[in-house]
């Protein structure tokens, strides 16, 4: 099986967190990364680009990551990309909300490289 490109959108209003995730993804040669600082910017980018994977910050300046995911899902339905909620808060604080929305994975900052490895595998293979 040949390696195919995995399109990733990172959504985070904290520039440092965004750049750290971007640097971590640079270790995956098949990752093509786009970034967004707000929910609306991310929504427009996701609808236009149709990425394979979205890393969502929970707290954004205009709306939260769950609201963003729900807006994307309303628009794309079954074509909604794999998504992981990323937060500095403990995942238990918003786990029920994420699960109800259908978000695939909850991650706590700082991210571990193994978290991204698993997400890239899932996004790249669809499994």
Structure description:
It is a single chain. The protein has helices spanning 15-25, 39-49, 65-76, 95-101, 113-125; strands spanning 6-11, 31-36, 53-57, 82-87, 105-108. It is α/β, with parallel strands linked by helices and 127 residues long.
Question: Nutshell version of this structure?
Answer:
Helix content is 43%, strand content 21%.
Architecture blueprint of SSEs:
Blueprint: E1 6-11, H1 15-25, E2 31-36, H2 39-49, E3 53-57, H3 65-76, E4 82-87, H4 95-101, E5 105-108, H5 113-125
Parallel strand pairs: 1-2, 1-3, 3-4, 4-5
Helix pairs in contact: 2-3
Q: Which terms summarize this structure?
A:
127 residues; 5 helices; globular
Using the alpha-carbon principal axes, give the shape.
globular
Please indicate the percent range of residues in DSSP E strands (runs of 2 or more): 15-25%
Q: Supply Rg.
A: 13 Å
Tell me the total number of β-strands: 5
